Structure formats: structure tokens, C-alpha cells
């Protein structure tokens, strides 16, 4: 269980879920360090944060040298709770997406959180306590058309956190993977699509699920068009869980995510029943 007042380090705290979490954590009496790639922009976007005692640090986990900067920060502030929140979505068909676009997505959604985790672990191990929270996504267990790259980044970083949860179980450090559905943040209005194609998809994918997904995201001007998740409620739920304790690894957020998870479990079960006899026929005699 987190101490009554603990120190939270939240990446990408200038907007959306990170901003809600930062403000709610301050309200709950915690010390909060929020990172942003641009502090002056962050201060304008979220003036209440500094007013309420929040500490801004200009840092970008996606930069290759970020681990050292985060390690210094973790030590200086004696971080108790790391929230890996910064991220964006790349939406595009597998064939239409360039390798650079995949690598850029991985730098932010995979290598970024990996660097901050490695930076904070020594401090948490030394005191025998700490929480590592990953803001993943429903896309972290389900890969819809046009979302292969984004899902790849979230599946991959979930794998690191799942493995880590076993590695640090007896060292006093806990891991929580949060899987939000669609929440009302600026997230969907900031998505990137394949740069090579004017409409975000190539001719061969016209009329397919790829065109549908890419065009739908490109049309979105306001997230409230489709998202039912309230970021402040998500933040309150996360803080409560960290404070009260938990004995699970994954926490879906939003009714849409619960429905998606049930559907995924059903698909996996159906797949297993269809292949069980094949699978069990391949053991040595
Ligand atoms: N909103 C949803 O529906 C939803 C659903 C599922 C999962 N999520 C996940 O929730 C997390 C937060 O997203 P949000 O909805 O709060 O979106 P948001 O409002 O766009 O906030 C994203 C934050 O991530 C940072 N960020 C964005 N692009 C970045 C880049 N290229 N490099 C480094 N940092 C970057 C930004 O920080 P600075 O600009 O201050 O550096 C920003 O504060 C993400 O990991 C996202 O995958 C969101």
C-alpha cells in the first residue's frame, strides 16, 4: 500500500489522463512531479498544477538519453509511484506504415516507458517499496484493423510490465497495467496516419477496414463525439487503487473496455477449443 502521502512521477502530465491524474494526486495530498516535453506550454495548458504545488520537469522519455535524467529525478525526489502515461497513437494499415513511423511509435510508447521504469527501479528496490503504473490501452490486448502499430507498442510494453511484475514481486515493488477504453482527452485529435498517403491509406486499401478506421480517426474533431470515459474519474480510480492496494495486474477502465475484454476472452476461448486437439497432438510420444 502507498504511504498516505507519497511522491508521484507522471509522464506527459500536461494534458488528458496525465493532467487529471496529476491534479487528482495533488488533491489527495501527494507530492507530484509532472513531466512534459515543453514546460512553458505545459504551464499554460495546466496553470493549476504549479499553483497547487506540482513540480514540472522538462523531459521526454522518448529521447535516447532520457534514462539518466529520469534516474536523477527518481533519486532527488525519492519517487514512490511512477506513472508511465505519455503516449500517442499511430493509425494506419500495416502495409501503408513506414518503418520510421513504426520506430517513432515504439520510441514513445515502448522505449520511453522502459527507460523510466529502469530509471526508477533502483530507488524503489533500495527502499523495498514502490508502484509502477503503465497507462496502456484496450489496444494493449486487442489489435483492430489500422491499429497494428499502436497495438504493437502497447502489447510490447505490457509484456515488459507483466514480466517485471513477477521479477519485483518479492522486492516490494508492485506493477499495475491500466487499460483505458475511449476517454475524453485530446488524444484522438492528435493521432498520426501514414505520411506517404494523402488520405492516410493506399489505393489497395480503399473500401476496406483500413480506410474505415483511418478515415474515421481523421474526421474526429472532438473526442466527445464517441468517447464516454471521464479522465477525472479514471484518475480518481487509479489513485484509490494505488492507495488501498490491489492484487491484480491489469485494470480495464470504461464500459467499452470491459466489453472489448470480454469479447477478446471469448475469441481466445473459441480459438483454443478449435485448436486444442491439434496442440495436444504435438507432444513427444
Ligand atoms: N484518451 C483515450 O481514449 C485513451 C485510450 C486508451 C489509452 N490511452 C493512453 O493514455 C495515455 C495518455 O493519453 P491521453 O488520452 O491523455 O492523451 P493526450 O491528452 O494527447 O496526452 C498525451 C500526453 O503524452 C505526451 N506525448 C504525446 N505525444 C508524445 C510524443 N511524441 N513524445 C513524448 N510524449 C508525448 C504529451 O506530453 P507533453 O506534450 O506534455 O510532452 C501528453 O501530455 C497514452 O499513453 C494513451 O495511449 C488513451
TrEMBL record:
The keyword Magnesium does not apply. It comes from the Eukaryota. CDD domains: 17beta-HSD-like_SDR_c (cd05374). The keyword Calcium does not apply. GO terms for biological process: secondary metabolite biosynthetic process. Keywords: NADP, Oxidoreductase. PROSITE patterns: ADH_SHORT (PS00061). Coiled coil: none annotated. This is NAD(P)-binding protein. It comes from Aspergillus ibericus CBS 121593.
Amino acid at each position: 500500500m502507498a504511504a498516505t502521502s507519497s511522491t508521484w512521477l507522471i509522464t506527459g502530465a500536461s494534458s488528458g489522463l496525465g493532467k487529471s491524474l496529476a491534479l487528482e494526486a495533488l488533491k489527495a495530498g501527494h507530492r507530484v512531479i509532472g513531466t512534459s516535453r515543453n514546460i512553458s506550454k505545459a504551464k499554460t495548458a495546466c496553470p493549476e498544477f504549479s499553483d497547487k504545488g506540482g513540480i514540472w520537469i522538462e523531459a521526454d522519455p522518448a529521447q535516447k538519453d532520457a534514462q539518466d535524467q529520469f534516474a536523477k529525478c527518481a533519486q532527488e525526489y525519492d519517487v514512490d509511484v511512477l506513472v508511465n502515461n505519455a503516449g500517442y497513437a499511430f493509425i494506419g494499415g500495416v502495409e501503408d506504415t513506414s518503418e520510421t513511423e513504426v520506430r517513432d511509435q515504439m520510441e514513445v510508447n515502448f522505449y520511453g516507458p522502459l527507460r523510466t521504469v529502469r530509471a526508477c527501479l533502483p530507488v524503489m528496490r533500495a527502499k523495498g517499496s514502490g508502484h509502477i503504473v503503465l497507462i496502456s490501452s484496450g489496444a494493449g490486448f486487442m489489435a483492430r484493423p489500422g491499429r497494428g502499430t499502436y497495438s504493437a507498442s502497447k502489447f510490447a510494453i505490457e509484456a515488459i510490465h507483466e514480466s517485471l511484475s513477477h521479477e519485483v514481486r518479492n522486492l516490494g515493488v508492485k506493477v499495475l497495467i491500466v487499460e483505458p477504453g475511449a476517454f475524453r482527452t485530446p488524444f484522438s485529435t492528435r493521432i498520426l496516419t501514414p505520411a506517404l498517403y494523402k488520405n492516410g491509406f493506399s489505393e489497395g486499401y480503399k473500401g476496406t477496414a483500413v480506410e474505415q478506421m483511418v478515415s474515421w480517426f481523421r474526421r474526429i474533431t472532438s473526442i466527445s463525439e464517441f468517447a464516454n470515459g471521464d479522465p477525472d474519474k479514471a484518475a480518481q480510480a487509479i489513485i484509490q487503487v494505488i492507495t488501498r492496494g490491489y492484487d491484480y495486474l491489469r485494470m480495464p477502465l470504461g464500459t467499452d473496455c470491459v466489453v472489448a475484454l470480454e469479447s477478446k476472452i471469448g475469441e481466445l476461448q473459441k480459438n483454443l477449443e478449435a485448436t486444442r486437439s491439434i496442440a495436444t497432438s504435438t507432444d513427444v510420444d
